Amino acid sequence: QQVVKTITEYNEALQKLKPGDSLVLAKGVWTDAELVFEGKGTKEKPITLTVEELGQTLLTGQSYLRISGEHLIIKGLVFKNGYTPTSEVISFKKDNEHYASYTRLTECVIDNYSNPERREQDYWIGVYGKHNRIDHNHIEGKGNLGVTLAVRINSEEFLNNYHSIDHNYFGPRQMLGSNGGETLRIGTSHHSLSNSNTTVAFNYFDRCSGELEIISNKSCQNTYKNNVFFESRGTLTMRHGNETLVENNIFIGNRVANT
Question: Does the pTM exceed 0.85?
Fold first, then answer.
């Protein structure tokens, strides 16, 4: 593994990554870090982007991450004290031609990393590609327009993607006062009759009250199971799509209005 301390060192190390390698961000505050994590690992030997010590590497200011390739792991990044200058904080694509598949995003934090202009739209996590897993992350405090985490099915190649969104903590999201404050959206109206095959399981939605839809299902053959919704003012909505399974979800309203 290689520890890097600057963006220049990071970009140099990125060019030399081989299956099984780890790229490690040094402890400290990384301001305005425009990270592209690109590589081709294998199932047995993924390529990992991680931090020197969990919780001690902060990405601040105008930082963001774009991911491209296969069999990658991103672990332990913390986004705080700023907001993305692009449309997504963490994007499972580098551009419209290069995206990430068989990639895992785990133990990362996005904490109140919101554009102060509430009507300026961005997504915190945009999921493209296929067979990606987003798990054990802590995501809270989105205050501006735009879905917190979206599975973006905006072309044929992202259909039947088999993503897994599991064991995440989705923390409080304040009321936006309009459409566009969903915590999760799987698909879009345009591809709503196509299969996504995304699984959303074992997540904890804590006071996710951005708008009436906590989760907006807009594609087919998705599964929502074993999630807990705590004092979240809204619904798990079958907005569009067919053949969706919803089971064993627990809603704890505690008599809060609109739960």
Answer: yes
